[in-house]
Design brief:
By secondary structure, the chain is an alpha+beta fold. The protein has four helices and seven strands. The protein has two domains: about 50 residues, no CATH class; about 80 residues, Nuclear Transport Factor 2, Chain: A, CATH 3.10.450.
């Protein structure tokens, strides 16, 4: 389910008033217009015959807003880690878009960081030195201190390592 601010929702195309609700709400023009701005998306689960319950919510950002979010998070992360680990730099962001359960203004995920300074922020061919659990606001500003959840270990290449802790 996609959730948009009421002002943004009013500006979305209707999807055809003569069509059934599901077809109107899933109309390509409507979904495309929704994707041009920041909105929330919630996944639901339900057992057969059971009541649907929200399973996981996430913030959806258009490309440029996602870049701004990650740049803000990178600066915040680097500044907070500077005193604890000189030279640590945020390199990759994993699932820093999932809402904290029960909140629509906080997100959690992982930042893979390296103690090496390099122009390559992609960690390609290099080992990540740490994985930290972070909690941010919707703009990428840290609202808690990063918690280093993995020191060294098997976080390599361009994939999340097998030791990533759950973002609870």
């Amino acid at each position: 389910m996609n959730i948009a601010a009421s002002g943004a929702a009013r500006r979305l195309p209707t999807g055809g008033d003569d069509r059934p609700t599901l077809l109107r709400l899933s109309d390509d023009g409507r979904l495309g217009a929704l994707a041009r701005g920041r909105h929330l998306s919630v996944d639901y689960t339900a057992e057969p015959g059971g009541t649907p319950t929200p399973a996981r919510g996430r913030l959806e950002l258009p490309f440029r807003q996602r870049q701004a979010f990650e740049e803000t998070l990178r600066k915040e992360f680097d500044a907070r880690m500077r005193g604890r680990r000189p030279g640590a730099r945020g390199r990759r962001f994993h699932q820093v878009r999932y809402l904290v359960p029960g909140r629509v203004d906080r997100m959690r995920g992982h930042v893979r960081s390296s103690d090496q300074t390099s122009a390559d922020d992609g960690l390609r061919g290099r080992r990540a030195d740490h994985v930290a659990l972070v909690t941010t606001d919707l703009d990428g500003r840290l609202v808690e201190e990063p918690r280093v959840a993995q020191e060294g270990g098997r976080v390599t290449g361009g994939r999340p390592g097998p030791l990533l802790p759950p973002a609870l």
